[in-house]
Design brief:
Helix content is 36%, strand content 17%. The protein has 687 residues and is an alpha/beta fold. One of its GO terms (cellular component) is endoplasmic reticulum. Keywords: ATP-binding, Fatty acid metabolism, Ligase, Lipid metabolism, Nucleotide-binding.
Length: 687
């Protein structure tokens, strides 16, 4: 047998395509293979054995080597211009300009989606919860469906009407009862109005009155008491019933009775018989389905961790559309964000929805844990090797580098992650590329708003480049419109992002003025964000229209863009950039990272506690210099750089009212809290 024929037979028996064996052929020396045969070789038995072993190993590698994910479309053309207008684009996954409205024909409402999951999973786990130091306990799909039906029947018994104009408030953190209450409302076509602490008392009263809410479901007595206080003041006259998850005192019941409010335990609602003519569930609440992008499939065995607020659309779409619709599981954190990592290790989720702030923390923690130069060099080399695989479309967590370097990182997140979804704010390309390599799983980035059912763009499976938020989802068209004041023009490929499609909302409840501001006459939702179309048809977020302000010299400032740049600085955990139309420069409020700040200052010869360092002018100067260097490297203009800053030792949080539940800065509140420091910096800094 000729040598070439022998190799060809080996290749065909292993099922190897011609193109896949090029690496092997390139390893061979140049030989006159046309005239070369095994019979002409004079080799010892050990040499022949070695050659056979080499050939077997090569064939094994060619068969089992990691394969790149096959993208669902051409990654160089992920979106298509609509009617020849390059500023208006739709998904390349669509056959024509007709947008996708429903992913499954029999699934058109939230209720339908859960019923689909119920048919798939039946008695399999649905909702999980745990007590400190204990494993997760699970409620099955069948149990959840029955509990929701009984709760909905109890709502009818309390006088709620089975139609979408009946609003029921839910004022509680993420837990199984939240989802059961929501599903109970949907079972009888009622609408849910989520409430949360950071709304503030005035906004809470406004919502209760605007929606004419008579019944609010709460988790504990303290929250119900805040509802009752408004009733006692006479500012929420429609409130008549409070339903609590937890036990409550007899004194609270008496207090509520004095202002004609009934207090019930959730189990009491389950036991109430519904009106006789309304005992069968219906599903009239219509909701557009934000379809998944491309070829990635959610499986019944997938598990998600629920900790992002259910009061916001992002988490609810993750649960209902992604998980429940496919019979998958959702495990809830214990309600304490400081215990989240312990919950993740215990739950071992396969799906991890996140916001960029959390990914930034994970990134900083990984880098901060590597102290020796040798280990740091090894980490960065391993990241580069994994990123090289990513660039060829290979995503895996079983490589040599995963076993040697990244296994502890992956174990800290449960060790089972298949995919991560980040949204709500831009994420640094550096952080995204680093974590894609270290976590060894798919990390997608999406963009959208509550007003377009959470999502309108999504990164494409197989595209592991960073610096964009993907292409339009099949349910949305996205176009850019001119913003002359900021010098953005659609003809140049950038402008305000506008969205149209079945996932766009119809308007704000009883607020025609705000509705007309958000929706134009053609049904386009104006997001207030500024985007740019990239050559491959993906969208990049480059600016923000809603929070822009003008300095005294006439320059427009987008503070969130600058803050995202400064957060790449090693000592910086959080930053708030402030400007004034009467001032010519920017100043900042910076919260140093408590995990690295002391060591960072010590490396510069400054010793002290976290609080002492925040008061040290030399430390402030060093932090400011570091921020300016990072800003310059990122391309910030001189007027976009802060000229002074105040170091604050306490982190911005939901608890102190400086962050929203989705971890965005409450800009007006931060300005109010730090007004004294802001005024002082402007009075002392000379330009």
């Amino acid at each position: 047998m000729h040598f070439q024929e022998w190799l060809r037979s080996l290749r065909s028996s292993a099922g190897i395509k011609s193109s896949e064996s090029e690496d092997f052929w390139s390893l061979l020396p140049t030989l006159p293979v046309s005239s070369f045969s095994l019979s002409s070789l004079s080799l010892s038995p050990s040499s022949l054995l070695g050659l056979g072993a080499l050939a077997s190993l090569t064939a094994y590698w060619l068969v089992y080597r990691p394969r790149p994910m096959r993208p669902p479309c051409d990654l160089q053309a992920q979106s298509v211009a609509v009617d020849g207008d390059p500023s208006c684009r739709r998904s390349a996954l669509l056959k024509d300009d007709s947008l996708l409205e429903f992913y499954y024909d029999d699934t058109r409402t939230f209720y339908d989606m859960f019923q689909r999951g119920l048919r798939i999973a039946g008695d399999c786990p649905c909702l999980g919860y745990r007590k400190p130091g204990q494993p997760y306990q699970w409620i099955s799909y069948t149990e959840v469906a029955e509990k929701a039906r009984l709760l909905g029947s109890g709502l009818l018994a309390k006088g709620c009407q089975p139609n979408p104009q009946q609003f029921v408030g839910i004022f509680a953190p993420n837990r199984p009862e939240w989802v059961i209450s929501e599903l109970g409302c949907y079972t009888y076509s009622m609408a849910v109005v989520p409430l949360y602490d950071t709304l503030g008392p005035e906004a809470m009263v406004h919502i209760l009155n605007m929606a004419e809410i008579s019944l609010v479901i709460c988790d504990r007595e303290e929250k119900a008491a805040s509802m009752l206080e408004n009733k006692e003041k006479g500012v929420t006259p429609t409130l008549s019933c409070l339903v609590l998850f937890n036990d409550f005192s007899d004194a609270f019941v008496e207090r509520a009775k004095d202002c004609e409010v009934e207090v019930l335990k959730l189990e009491q609602l389950h036991r109430m018989p519904p009106p006789e003519l309304l005992s069968l569930p219906c599903a009239l609440l219509i909701s557009s389905l934000v379809s998944s992008q491309g070829s990635f499939v959610i499986r019944q065995e997938d598990v998600s961790i629920s900790y992002l607020p259910l009061a916001h659309m992002f988490e609810r779409m993750i649960q209902v559309v992604s998980m429940f619709c496919h019979g998958a599981r959702v495990g809830f954190y214990q309600g304490d964000i400081s215990l989240l990592m312990d919950d993740i290790k215990t739950l071992k989720p396969t799906f991890f929805p996140v916001v960029p702030r959390l990914l930034n923390r994970i990134y900083d923690k990984i880098l901060g844990s590597v102290t020796s130069p040798l280990r740091r060099a090894l980490l960065h080399y391993a990241v580069r090797r994994k990123q090289a695989e990513l660039s060829s479309g290979v995503v895996r967590n079983n490589s040599l580098w995963d076993k040697l370097v990244f296994n502890r990182i992956q174990a800290n997140l449960g060790g089972n992650l298949r995919f991560v979804l980040t949204a709500s704010a831009p994420i640094s390309p550096t952080v995204l590329s680093f974590l894609r390599a270290t976590l060894g799983c798919l990390i997608f980035e999406g963009y959208g708003q509550t007003e377009c059912t959470a999502g309108c763009t999504f990164s494409m499976p197989g595209d592991w480049s960073a610096g964009h938020v993907g292409a339009p989802l099949p349910c949305a068209m996205v176009k850019l419109v001119d913003i002359p004041d900021m010098n953005y023009y659609a003809k140049n490929g950038d402008g305000e992002i506008c969205v149209q499609g079945p996932s766009v909302f119809r308007g704000y409840l009883k607020d025609a003025e705000r509705t007309s501001e958000a929706l134009d006459s053609d049904g386009w939702l104006h997001t207030g964000d500024v985007g740019q179309w990239l050559p491959n048809g993906t969208l990049r977020i480059i600016d923000r229209k809603k929070h822009i302000f003008k300095l005294s010299q006439g320059e427009y400032i987008a503070p969130e863009k600058i803050e995202n740049v400064y957060m790449r600085c090693v000592p910086v955990l959080q930053v708030f950039v402030h400007g004034d139309s009467l001032q010519s420069f920017l100043i900042g409020i910076v919260v140093p990272d408590p995990e690295v700040f002391v060591d960072w200052a010590k490396d510069r010869g400054i010793v002290g506690s976290h609080e002492e360092l925040c008061q040290n002018p030399d430390v402030k100067k060093a932090v400011l210099e570091d921020m300016r260097a990072v800003g310059k490297e990122a391309g910030l203009k001189s007027f976009e750089q802060v000229k002074d800053l105040h170091l604050h030792p306490e982190t911005f949080s939901v608890a102190n009212g400086l962050l929203t539940p989705t971890m965005k800065s409450r800009r007006a509140d931060i300005r109010r809290v730090f007004q004294e420091q802001i005024s002082s910096m402007y009075s002392k800094t000379a330009i």
